[in-house]
Design brief:
Number of domains of chain A: 2
Largest sheet of chain A: 5 strands, mixed, barrel
GO biological process, one term (chains A, B, C, D, E, F): rRNA 3'-end processing
Shape of chain A: elongated
Strand content of chain A: 15-25%
Oligomer: homohexamer
GO molecular function (chains A, B, C, D, E, F): hydrolase activity
Keywords (chains A, B, C, D, E, F): Hydrolase
Low-confidence stretches of chain A: none
Pfam family, one (chains A, B, C, D, E, F): HD
Distance between the termini of chain A: 27 Å
InterPro entries (chains A, B, C, D, E, F): HD_domain (IPR006674), NA-bd_OB-fold (IPR012340), YhaM_exoribonuc/phosphodiest (IPR050798)
Chain lengths: ~325, ~325, ~325, ~325, ~325, ~325
Amino acid sequence: MTLIRTFTEGDEITGYYLLKKAEIKQTNAAPPKNYFDFVLADSSGEIPAKLWDVSAADKETYFPMMLVKVQGLVQMYREKPQMKINRIRKATEEDGCKLTDFIKSAPIQPIDLVHIIKQTAAGIQDSECRSVVEFCISKVEERLMHYPAAKAMHHAYYAGLAYHICRMLELGEFVARQRPFLNPDLIKAGIILHDIAKPEEMNAELGIVTDYSLKGKLLGHISLAANWVIEAAIALGIDVSSENIVILQHLVLSHHNLGEWGSPVQPQIPEAIALHYIDTLDAKLQAVEDALDSLPDSEEWTQPLRIIENKPIFRMRK
Amino acid sequence: MTLIRTFTEGDEITGYYLLKKAEIKQTNAAPPKNYFDFVLADSSGEIPAKLWDVSAADKETYFPMMLVKVQGLVQMYREKPQMKINRIRKATEEDGCKLTDFIKSAPIQPIDLVHIIKQTAAGIQDSECRSVVEFCISKVEERLMHYPAAKAMHHAYYAGLAYHICRMLELGEFVARQRPFLNPDLIKAGIILHDIAKPEEMNAELGIVTDYSLKGKLLGHISLAANWVIEAAIALGIDVSSENIVILQHLVLSHHNLGEWGSPVQPQIPEAIALHYIDTLDAKLQAVEDALDSLPDSEEWTQPLRIIENKPIFRMRK
Amino acid sequence: MTLIRTFTEGDEITGYYLLKKAEIKQTNAAPPKNYFDFVLADSSGEIPAKLWDVSAADKETYFPMMLVKVQGLVQMYREKPQMKINRIRKATEEDGCKLTDFIKSAPIQPIDLVHIIKQTAAGIQDSECRSVVEFCISKVEERLMHYPAAKAMHHAYYAGLAYHICRMLELGEFVARQRPFLNPDLIKAGIILHDIAKPEEMNAELGIVTDYSLKGKLLGHISLAANWVIEAAIALGIDVSSENIVILQHLVLSHHNLGEWGSPVQPQIPEAIALHYIDTLDAKLQAVEDALDSLPDSEEWTQPLRIIENKPIFRMRK
Amino acid sequence: MTLIRTFTEGDEITGYYLLKKAEIKQTNAAPPKNYFDFVLADSSGEIPAKLWDVSAADKETYFPMMLVKVQGLVQMYREKPQMKINRIRKATEEDGCKLTDFIKSAPIQPIDLVHIIKQTAAGIQDSECRSVVEFCISKVEERLMHYPAAKAMHHAYYAGLAYHICRMLELGEFVARQRPFLNPDLIKAGIILHDIAKPEEMNAELGIVTDYSLKGKLLGHISLAANWVIEAAIALGIDVSSENIVILQHLVLSHHNLGEWGSPVQPQIPEAIALHYIDTLDAKLQAVEDALDSLPDSEEWTQPLRIIENKPIFRMRK
Amino acid sequence: MTLIRTFTEGDEITGYYLLKKAEIKQTNAAPPKNYFDFVLADSSGEIPAKLWDVSAADKETYFPMMLVKVQGLVQMYREKPQMKINRIRKATEEDGCKLTDFIKSAPIQPIDLVHIIKQTAAGIQDSECRSVVEFCISKVEERLMHYPAAKAMHHAYYAGLAYHICRMLELGEFVARQRPFLNPDLIKAGIILHDIAKPEEMNAELGIVTDYSLKGKLLGHISLAANWVIEAAIALGIDVSSENIVILQHLVLSHHNLGEWGSPVQPQIPEAIALHYIDTLDAKLQAVEDALDSLPDSEEWTQPLRIIENKPIFRMRK
Amino acid sequence: MTLIRTFTEGDEITGYYLLKKAEIKQTNAAPPKNYFDFVLADSSGEIPAKLWDVSAADKETYFPMMLVKVQGLVQMYREKPQMKINRIRKATEEDGCKLTDFIKSAPIQPIDLVHIIKQTAAGIQDSECRSVVEFCISKVEERLMHYPAAKAMHHAYYAGLAYHICRMLELGEFVARQRPFLNPDLIKAGIILHDIAKPEEMNAELGIVTDYSLKGKLLGHISLAANWVIEAAIALGIDVSSENIVILQHLVLSHHNLGEWGSPVQPQIPEAIALHYIDTLDAKLQAVEDALDSLPDSEEWTQPLRIIENKPIFRMRK
């Protein structure tokens, strides 16, 4: 099957794709005619597509998040490729396609990622810290299996959040070994908790954020995670004013570093400084890696990436 | 008794004052001599003072927050007045001075301010809202009797916090009447809760903030108040995810309006917008009023005030 | 008649509306055909509309700011509703429609608003102040009956400027009573003068700003109002260097608070501080109230509002 | 006579200098002793000086802006030179010193500078423009003979303002010749008017700004000059709304270019753009030239200059 | 021939124009039809154009940068004019058109501009300076004959870069005469070198920048010119650490004044200050002049110009 | 010997220290007396010290960077400790003190650090890259043995620069292993080259930066290192326009990430992104670690650190 990221103007394509969007619209003709405005997707990317002749039956057949077999032509429209669909049908069981094959995912199995996170939590020495972390994991464990880390900035795919946490844990372990003045318990706890409330902040399906929740908009994932630390303390009988709880909240609250980036306080313990810069390093490099991964082979430069000062990245010949 | 704000170069002063600071230092003479570096205060202001001849007994006599009777001369030092003390002694019971007469206070009795706040809370219609607000008041009721609202920016005096809340409640009531689309319960709740955790963020004595607490530095009063809302919900059996709790937290979290001013989220309900601008109006005008109050009669311009873009205020002839 | 803000995709609409825009365009067909690109409006909002078949007579019939009767279908175009017009005709006298019923207006009669403003001016104690304020009102009295306060930010409708001034006067009176150190004359004068030159800065018809005047672009309403104070002084025989004139100009010049918001000087008298924050409170809350008023019942969130840090507002269930 | 800018640690100095400051202070000794805290100045710079033994007669003898003959020693105090005065007396008529020899001045005679400005004004072709410019010159003609252009940023010396205007007129004439699309009348008028109200904004004596006037603080020189244009129009019978008046005000109002630099509107005619950048070029280069002029021969780097992004300037060996 | 800047809606045009863009696209009709999406240009401006009926032969006939004769109609599309082409053919030799007549150019012959630059370089007194400047000119001499100074900001036309340098040299000579403390060699060298590497940073044809080169994106013209100074020093046997080389590099590196504008260091010698502000004055005024030149006679205001704080310019009646 | 960071008010100290500063000043007494204004230092910190009785012989004895034996008393002066010296003498050979024992140093021997850097350079696979890196190392090899990485921000001690590079190389190796899409040669080359010209930018002795060099001020270490890459290319016969040279310069030029932080271009290859964030992580964490190391045991909070948003760091009880 041809991957969408390799589509080139003029390609005649036949294959299975995911309908990420499926809207009925009308042309300006007199009388106006219905057409389908689709977005097709696979694990490598997505492309807009048009179906110009729409029957009454078609209207009742095609809906978002459905797998279809299409035959069509790749054309340029406003300097971007789109597909003109000539034939389309629903994929059937006999076609043997699985939805999850058509979405972008972390390169490691979600179950393994969640296992790593839980193992790391279990390895936290301080028992109060450990139980608070485990309490918070338990609130989202199921969603960690598939949630992305963000809407678009970085790790925006299936299990992207768990993958982000795991790569940060690797980096955190290295840094804590390189600098023994850091407390490894706090590095681990900070990394696991920092974005733990994202599944409550955003609504996501199949690794795609559809929108922010009411709580997400009015409170944000930083305050939500801070709430969970308090809930954990009360549930576990830990004094909410104890240094452990204050420090865990501080790690969460300060991890965006600056007020204009959403942190109500700035990092003021060494592990909070480390947490912010480990998060930064992982998010920026992953965004660069993903942008290069989905860059057509014929291109040398990515689109400008908001996460790195809105600059594009150049791919060198190896 | 001569008020400190009326001291003029050359004045010979005799009177009772509060020792706000009392440190022993040494001159550069050879051999060096001890002297006392004081700050004298009364309800109108404060002034540095020096006692050049210090006996061994003196060292054991004078300490901060003690009332003394002094006789001395007002001189200019680096363009600011200071007092050269000629005679000093501890004030005794017979002198009939009370500590609280020597500190700057809100113009309304603390007990009346706290009464207004509690009455207003009791008038909140929604019972969940009301009980959360009352839970939070109960955590600081005693400290509301004397805490200032800030270290220096505004309402920085005895019971300044309660006074700030009460004036805001007056303004909030007016605005809610002028604009019936606003929910008066949320206006009241927002005003009472917005700075409620300041007594936990700062350490203060006699209306003077000495420093910030560890929690104050690592979490800040905004997150502390958000914590209390969660604690209240759990204690009162209210779902922490209910709209009431989310909205109350949103009011608290967003009341500084911008991330760079400490709010992790921006106001997104009408009452949160109202809360921020009511807070702003009261704080700025009070800061201006206080600056003019403590301006010597001979001066036309105050010092630059950080709270109003670092500009000084001009006092017009009436 | 169905209000435009309640239009939903698929609605068949028949009713009277105002033609806010009426342009003839051509389709890309070969040969190209003429069509009318309209914007329909009523007091609740506006919607784009298309008339696909345009006769030679039609071209000479439909012009902006005309009332029409239309019959058409509400469709979605680029995720926004627009109307496909099937039938259209000019409204006649017999239809009994009045233009002013179709535009958004202040909720109080303009004549009453202007009366309040003039009464308040007449109540200014200081005779010089009073006569300068009355001189400036007289320059725009007629336009105060219908001018909006801004192009889009706030009070952008018929008599919006006079309404803004009146609500500020209410708030100003409250604040001056709450804080007797403020001079009520200057509060009143500042509120009436602060935006008084907006009708000279902008061109507006029926409460809609069409564009800025040359003077508006090259000088701005702040400097224009400052000019009027000088003109008034000279006309009334008041020394242009007197404290009254300097203070009135200062109130006008500083009311945007910061240089980047258009004020060449920053507020440096208490009444100027009060003026800026009263203006802010009224403008922000009115913008929020208006945005919620025109929000379709089916929606929970407004569009992002530039005036409140580009954030949307959430409408709670009461 | 040794110029102050050539003073070096250890120098024994005898000469005539201006007392720019003369304050009596007291040492910390017991009993405290009086001493004189002076600032000595000449046309090349200034230096703090101390007179440790002060007689009762001395107190009645030395005052600011008086010429004295001193004999003393240059010492380092907190890494800056100051003079310890051994002998001092008032300069007498026989000494033959003139006050104006001791202050920093423009390198061209004030009378010649003002002559150039008036000649240029007289050469403006448009008679309305010309008479407005001449009206404004007449308000400050006498003060143009000695006023500095600023407190410290640039041209901060005797007749600095007139000198700044004249150098800008030279540059403006060149630019208008190089680019004939510019209107030379407006270039001339803009240059003469742009800072014309500075003598009303600041109080200055002998080329030294002592402070800002009340008008200067509350209105600023930009709005003051805009006022004068209106006054001129009314006095001369020109319509205050005519294009000439609007354009002249626009030149004045926009010449600081940005709101945060004090301009309520931004330049929107070619001559306003030219005016701002001619002003900028002259002010920056003059500030650099003056800083190098007063730099001791032994130094290679000036102090950081606020006017050029707070950078110091390096003096190359020629 | 009708100049494009004078095109008005409804004009029937016949004439020769340059095809600046020529892309084949497809309509949404069923079956879709090919059409040509052109941009026509002449020395006065450019306009989009459509050719709706495209034959197979047409596809092989029209390419960018070709001269054509067209007959068509000017229409409004999305509030901007575009041409509907009725007839089109290639221009032939007999038509007597020259490509260079159809592009915007500096008003002085390129050969004269380059001559001025080389003469000025030859007049630099210091032989090291002179030979470094000549080395750098020799790297781009040919491209100086046609390169623009920028993609869009200013001097964006044929030989715009050489023209910019020459006008700056005129201004620089004036300033150096007005202020003898400036070193004329460094003024000349700085002006010639400051943008000398632009032809290496950008790819341009016929005065139009098509894109940035890889070097241009990864290093920028400032660092490229700094490299050339080092190359010159090595080639000419001048010590790379000598003051001459350091100063020449400093002029180049600092000429954008601020880090956020691309300069890694800020100007710290007088000639570097002069260079930056001479560059600024020339670039801003030229951008204004060019914008007014290409403004249709019927318009009073240009588009907002990014180079002058995104403000439009008003054209006065003379 | 008592470490300076453990000095407490009232301590009687006897021990060997380094004279970091030694200036003769005069008291205000009449006649004034000479005294020595010292700064004493050891590897743990520094403290001001005064010697009040100075003989003629003393003046010729004590100079900066000399080891002395002192006996004195720790006192508080303006809330900071300083020492009053009672006895002092030069340290002699018999005392057995070594200068390098008294200065703060990297925790690894300089010779080992330089060895690591050279070994890493030797391991770069691409021969052009490798030889450019080795060329640049050879320019500063000797100074790498002792240069600090900065004046005050981070790694401001003996061999701090080499230590910074080595820790970054460890981190870089980890990141390159974790993310195989990164080119390890470029990570190594970027890390070694990024600050390689700091010894040319700053003058330093014994790990202490005394000031910036002329080149350092006028060009900066970023442009200096870019120069060296060009010099290396020419010396080694590599085309200065080859991708290798462009990429190496890009790594150096972009490593400060933003223009306002000194980078004329922003990172646009993955390894440049990695380089910037590895540099950031190492510099911030080292600054935090060093601040805690030199924090007196009695303190919980460091001074505000400019490198981490001017926040202080809290030291937790382990």
